[in-house]
Amino acid sequence: MSGFAVYNSPNMLSLNNLSKSYAQRVLFSHVTFNIDVRDRMALLGANGSGKSTLLGIVAGEVSSDEGSITRRKGLTVGYLKQESCNSSQQCLLSEVTSAAATVNTLEHRIGIVQDALSGNPDADTQAQLMVELGDLQHRFEAAHGYNVEQEAGVILCGLGFRESDFDRPMSDFSGGWRMRAELAKILLQNPDLLLLDEPTNHLDLETQIWFEEYVKAYQGAVLLTSHDRAFLNRVVNRVLALDHSKLSVYTGNYDDYVEARQQEMEILEATARRQSLKIGQEEHFINRFRYKATKASQVQSRIKKLDKIKRVEVPRLARKISFHFPPPPHSGTDIIMLSHVQKSYGENVVYGDLNLQLRRGDRVAIVGPNGAGKTTLLKILAGVLPFDGGERKLGHAVTHAYYAQHQLELLEPNNTVLAELRTAAPSGIEDMALRTILGGFLFSGDDVFKQVSVLSGGEKARLALAKMLTQPANFLLMDEPTNHLDIASREMLSDALEAYSGTLCFITHDRTLIRQIATTIIDVNGGQISVFPGDYDTYQYHKEMLAEESFQAVSSAPQLTASVSNSRQKRAMSGELRNDYYAKSTPLNKRIEKLEADLANVEAEIKYMEDCFARPEHYEDSQEVVGSIEHHRELKARAGELTAEWEKLATEAESLREAFETALNRLDSGGQ
Question: Does the model's pTM come out above 0.85?
Fold first, then answer.
């Protein structure tokens, strides 16, 4: 059984040889690592590998079978579990500020120490009390004791709540919003160590960006699990990988981990091949001369040598889903059209006059805050939700398939996996063909006879995806298809969707999937939709340019010229400036990087064509010459357009940076 020891050390927390099993299954063994003050650590592994269990052990809520944990004296820990059953009847703000209960204790103790100091104690006692008072006041400020409600409001708004929500009882909120409230409570506590189990599961894209910046600026340490590759790349600086009960530690973000892991596997495979060759040579010698008296001593020597060799084992890679969408039947150019569609839920008008047209080959990501109407729009497009007025018209020969989050709940619990897949398959399809599809989604052997009721969330998600493959469709509609999938499965799904040649419309909080797949972004907000042709980074850039509050307005706002009463206010305002600057500059810089890459490709093609022009044989076909000259002219024009846009955006980025630095300097000088 694990125990906690308190100690003083440069490390915040140390895990030593932890092991954990359930029945005959070993989750992990001899896990050892340290957590330091400013670590941003991601715990990765396949679903069921033991990540949540390990977090629970670190939090002190689960015991290990072996090993120990040592903590720095006074360490505070905040632990967010994947699911919360909070059914409090308190209002939102009161529920969140209740997490700062230690503030009252600290305030009471500060009063006691101050009273003791006012009693003219002797010099030694006074010195001790002053040290204690300084420590208490530091902890009181760190716990936001001077403005708990204000700090709670900032965090709640950052997590997507409105001020009008603050007085609503917790029971009014859905499970996803309650999870956000739980996250707010933990962030308000400002613990030394944050333990976060899938913290972005219930966050929309805008809230994810705010949360990323919060975690990056957090003064304590963070250990988290997440399947969001973009989030991991932006936040973490160390990766702990659980694989086949062993834990390996890597420096860097998720992409760095993938590269290091690949290199590690290549080295292991090469070492194993060399060792296998050497062992084969030794065994060949032994078998050849085993019964020859003159070679007996050499044979025995080589047998002993082989017995001492530690065999190099190449880890068996975790199985991944492996599939591709069947070739879709041909359709007309127009896929679907919504004209003047109206949709309300009681008095809540979601859409008053919705107009949208999708064309063949579109790959559309629907984005927007939670509750804005994204799923309603997708359901209307899929034809599974009636609307109050207007028209929905499918194009010629359009066949569609719809994957929805609630479909996991619609799976028949008493069916076997194979029987459930058969409900979606065309009549006459053989079981062998269905089992082949299921094999691609990791249902092999007797797994196909499992009842749906015993499947995990990830297994149900894979089964629901498999059902989409039984009938070819040229229009896919998908609502959060990556939910419940681990990173490896998400990557396979991304690759399958990228290779899909039909029309695609989807909702997801996985920015990596959006960046890889989407060619059009539909932003849903306040009953209105805005269509942005182009990729996700282009959408982010345009959205920032359309924002009502310009950065210059923020940098010259009256509050910056007001007297700054204390350093904490300065830090808070500085943080707001930085958050605003990075929110505006990040998409702009990404767009600049993309323009530079596009310009490099165009210039390389121009150079290639000009090299062709220099070769006499190029002019043997007059039609080819005419075509290449026209294409060269088009490329030159395109290069000019890209260069002009690059110069414009580079100027904007520089102006943004200068305004940011000016605002910071003004703040540092006290607003003068």
Answer: no
